[in-house]
Amino acid sequence: MSDCIFCKIVAGQIPASKVYEDSDFLAFRDIAPKADTHLLLIPKRHIVNLNDINAADEALLGRLLLTIPNIAAAEGLAGYRTITNTGVEGGQEVFHMHFHILGGDQLPGF
Ligand code: 5GP
Ligand code: ZN
């Protein structure tokens, strides 16, 4: 997606503070952090949100979830919150699926 800001980050066309990268995923620091540590984990492939996945993505999504505790541990997070917003009504502003990883201070109950 040529007009997608996260695809541009994947392509190296705009800078980001990367904390993790492999062949399928990239994690970087949110530009406007809502917690002491606020990371975004994305698939490199442009997927809009959870409404855009199907059975063929099962393994990819499993691997995505498995990377989260590793990234959190590398950031020194014992506990953290993981959020993905889906659609305008769900508060999604960037339409390339991403998982927020928030932590580093005590988060309020949800
Ligand atoms: P959403 O509301 O779509 O779930 O979250 C989008 C997130 O992307 C927001 O927390 C916002 O601060 C972050 N964000 C938007 N543009 C950029 C950017 O260019 N670089 C980085 N690192 N984060 C961004
Ligand atoms: Zn994209």
Helix-strand blueprint:
Elements (H helix, E strand, L loop, with lengths): L4 H6 L7 E4 L3 E5 L7 E7 L14 H17 L5 E4 L15 E5 L7
Antiparallel strand pairs: 1-2, 2-3, 3-5, 4-5
The structure holds guanosine-5'-monophosphate (5GP) and zinc ion (ZN).
**CATH fold title:** HIT family, subunit A
Looking at CATH, the homologous superfamily is: HIT-like
- Percentage of helical residues? 10-25%
Shape: globular
What ligands are attached or bound here?
guanosine-5'-monophosphate, zinc ion
Q: What number is the mean pLDDT?
A: 97
Shape-level CATH architecture: 2-Layer Sandwich
Task: Write up this protein.
The protein has a single domain (5-93), classed as HIT-like (HIT family, subunit A). Helices cover 21% and strands 23% of the residues. It has two helices and five strands. Strands 1-2-3-5-4 form a five-stranded antiparallel beta sheet, covered by helices on one side. The chain is globular. The site of zinc ion has 6 residues, from helix 1.
